[in-house]
Amino acid sequence: MSGVTLSIAVLLAVGLLFAKVAQLIKLPSVTGFILAGLVLGPSGFGLITVASVGHKLDHFTQIALMLIAFGIGEHIELRRLGAIARDVTYISIVQALGTFVMVTIGTLLAAWLLAGSGDRSLDPVVLALLLGAVAVATAPAAILHLVREMGARGPLTSTLMAVVAVDDGLAIMIFGLAVSVAHQIVGPGAATPVQAVVACVYEIFFSLAIGVLTGLLIDYMLNKFHKREEMLTGGLALLLLCGETTRLLHLSPLLAGMAAGFIIINRAERDVRLFRAINAFEPPIYVLFFTLAGVHLDLAALKLAGWLGLVYFVTRIIGKYTGAWLGAVLSGAPARVRNYLGLALIPQAGVAIGLVFMISSDPQLDAWSAVITPVVLAGVVFSELFGPLLARFTLERAGEGETVQHHPECGARSRRACNAWLRGSEGISFAPWTGGKLHPASRPNGVVVFGAFHFATVRGLARIAAILAHHYHALPMAVRVSELPEQARPDEGDLDSLFLAEKDETASLGYPLKTEVIHGTPAAGLVAAAERNKARAIVLGYPVDSNPHAFQRVIDQVVAGVSCPVVAVRFSGTFRCGRILVPFLFPFELDELLPILEAMAMTTQPRITFLHLLHHDSSKEEVAASDQELQGWLATNLFDTQTRHLVEAAESRLETIMQAAEYHDIVIMTAARRYGLNRMFFGSLSSSVVRNLSRPVLVLCPPGKQADRPSS
Fold this sequence. Notes:
Layout: H1 4-24, H2 29-40, H3 58-74, H4 78-81, H5 85-113, H6 124-135, H7 140-150, H8 155-186, H9 193-224, H10 228-248, H11 253-266, H12 273-281, H13 283-296, H14 300-331, H15 335-340, H16 350-360, H17 366-397, H18 415-422, E1 429-430, E2 447-451, H19 458-472, E3 475-482, H20 492-498, H21 500-508, E4 514-519, H22 522-532, E5 535-541, H23 548-561, E6 566-570, E7 574-575, E8 579-584, H24 588-604, E9 607-614, H25 620-637, E10 642-649, H26 653-661, E11 666-670, H27 676-682, H28 685-692, E12 697-701
Parallel strand pairs: 1-7, 2-3, 2-5, 3-4, 5-6, 8-9, 8-11, 9-10, 11-12
Antiparallel strand pairs: 6-12
Helix pairs in contact: 1-2, 1-13, 2-13, 2-17, 3-7, 3-11, 3-13, 5-6, 5-8, 5-14, 6-8, 6-17, 7-8, 7-17, 8-9, 9-10, 9-11, 10-11, 10-12, 14-17, 16-17, 19-21, 19-24, 22-23, 26-28
């Protein structure tokens, strides 16, 4: 695949697809990105190769590395790290030295044992020293992405991010010393260990100095710029300039980027606006970065590395874990940090590969690169595939992953499994009626019809029908539509048994229940029952365990055939009406919903939240005017009901509703009058809420022609 633009599109699409699949089976997104790269790259179908496209996209990798480093700096806030500074110091130093010693000894022994089958001209001590130094480096990108994806917070996360930030500086220093010692072993005339230390200090100091200067310039810019787009543009310009400057001077862009983020987060102003702006900008850059990393991974390296590669991988894990554990013990860190932090340091990628390239470009050490390169690449393959899994496992076991807004009745089910279960027969339930007995009108005026089709929903439909009947001074009426021929209809005793659950529910509210069995199609049968019994409203329940789209046709047919409101209810989880959310786009929707809201207020005394969704570019004046108008409507119509109101200039109407719904029991809204191609192309907000929300949703479909009504 030669086209760069086409390659970017494929990398983004396939990377995102694999990430979603990974999430479904509880794997980190990073693992999905890397697997996508493996499938697309030379180790898979070969659609994207390093030679044809990979190097043309290196600038994306450089941008991503700078953004990653800057993001890590945000997590090194001295105010928060004050309590764990001792832990970070001990753990960083001990795990770095422990990894170096463990890998050096392990690979040295392996090299001696395998000397008979390898190249005897290579000094195994030099090989082991270089592998031990490279093993110290971690993969800050994978760890940062995982922390953000999980929303992880806590002492383990804070310590982990600080250790990762310090680790690369230590890796550079240890690598410089190891190279110096290797030069002394290989031959005279090389740099002395003192010179190596000076070179490492020079690289670290000036990298940090450029980063500090960049952070101060960004802070000055943030004080002058106030628009989000200006901050993002200026901030990216300074960060990329910082990265290119350090590369030209052969310094560390990672250390410089971390220092810039560190300065901004620790300034007295603590301005995090640029971090947030970059967070919204960087996801596609991240996908390209990790998917390209997968393209660069060559599974052939696993075979070339042989036993030495396996020893390198295993001893590195042992060194990271035992070093982090010992450092945590020496510093007196909490148990969760002692037990879990080491496993979160396993990912390894960019920095390690960069150190390998430095070895291959060193004239005195390039002979060892033929062995070191496949060994390190094999370790990178394993650590990038399994490292994020271990890191996620540690954060979850430590209880620092983000607490998902989860239904308690779902138990340990995943979000996807929970949503499916809540809408199934076992997940739907009804809170006991606590509103006391209602008193039917002495002379009922018509009925509120509800279609009784599924045992899991009939109680809820009966309750809603009785509440509406109380408002309309009518009686609830259960209708079962049978497609059997009329001569096969059951006798009276069997008819009574068909409606036991519905009768029991309406009786608990104090209402008798009228019943009827009609033969024909569901839509035609409900329309006939409504006309014959002077229905004031019709209540329909979405089928259980089926696609809401299919049932929408039945709703449309019923709405077209009657002159009363139609209420469609999607049950999910426990049905209760204590906290009601009413999202709407246009003020006239409130007048349409008023009878239902009055019925609820009269019987259940709920707390009702009104959410007016304006266009995302609405001005402050428009928001204030809408807020005042909504207050006036509430004071006129629901003055004796406990209400609150919100006016939001929503960037995403669906997301805004879903976020607000997490704190409510049920959502009540109107349906758009859209049919056929109109609905296909422009959609329906209420239908999207029904499909995506794991809360009960009640949708009002008003009757009559309203040609001038805007569509929601």
